[in-house]
Amino acid sequence: MNKLFTALILIFAGCNAQGSSDPDLPSGPLSLTLDVQEMVVPADTLSGEPYLISSNGQVHLSWLDRTSTGAAMRLAKMNGASWGLMGTIAEGDRWFVNWADVPSIVTNGREMWAHWLEYNGDGRYSYGVRVRRSRDAGLTWEAPMWLHDDTSAVEHGFGAMAAVGGDVHAVWLDGRKWAEGVQEMTVRTRALGEDLGPEFMIDGRTCDCCPNAMVALDDDGLIMAYRNRSESEVRDIHVARMINGRWEEPKAVHEDGWEIAACPVNGPALDASNGRVAIAWFTAPNDDPQVNVAFSDDSGETFAEPIRMDTGAAIGRVDVVLLDDGTAVASWIQGDPATGVSEAGITARRVAPDGRQSEPVTVVPTSASRASGYPRMVRDGGSLVFAWTGTQPTRSVRAARAVMGL
After folding, report:
1. Which of 393, 335, 348, 387 has the alpha carbon at shortest distance from 53?
2. Is the whole model's pTM more than 0.90, yes or no?
3. Most exposed residue of 210, 282, 337, 373, measured as fewest CB within 10 angstroms of its CB?
4. Domain containing 82: what range?
């Protein structure tokens, strides 16, 4: 392990801070130290598409190794300052591998589920979502299943999974309308178990290729976030909640008004705890790229005004985690405002619901290109764990643990 970076962040009240009425939030200036230590990942020389989960005191990492015939999805568990390789979740020679459409894992405490992408036709984007269950914490895996009922040779992807109340649910972008000549994606969901539950369409017109996010709410509910697509090509972030087993009508987190007749391939991130929800997202209204965070204190029913996190030249690809005191840490890829996006780093910044936030800190340098993929961040007690795709000297998965001092 190499010590990459030790940073002391002195946090000052932001210009929009009004003081907090939440008794759990710390008062006055905040501080955060990040002692970042890189960890050796047992990945092949050519690898990418990392994904992290933190559950019941354990952190797991999945990624894709490139093989001589295709790709293989690997699984490792964090043991202190190192990663222990657990094995292969699945592998094949008909996999769709993409820097943004990343396979994932989830656990409900008894089972682990994984999803990845396989071609179901001859077209470039003729692929679907496969899921697979493990009943022994990822040591062995049952036969894979297609997540969706539709078998059209069109795009199905950008899956996200979450466990709530012992159940596991999945969402995905579904392109079955394209098989009928309608160039629109939908976002759909279903429960995973002995049998797959019925499909439910959350939104009938979404952005084509932005990753989705979904997390559990404390009251046995779910909240998922995605990029909507209006008839006038406004592509703002929306959320939908499953409460008491029923999905509510989606609503915008904030009316950014970003009109773009193309997919920005930049999805939102969510975290939830004790009735609080934090959401981070990228947007660029009026050609002003920015990363925002918004908070909810009513389990995502409503959100406060967004708080801008970046310092200019934002690239996005966000993540967010809530801390016990009600603040959150957001991460994203930040370009250099002086030189544009030619130099970039994975950046983290702590923020409070009242607008106070730290000075941003570069956790590790990275590439601004799509080859660097989507950085991931989870909380492990008093630490943050990061995973990303390095691009030099080869494209390979890397990870680091950052001990926080608050």
Report:
1. 387
2. yes
3. 337
4. 3-17+29-397
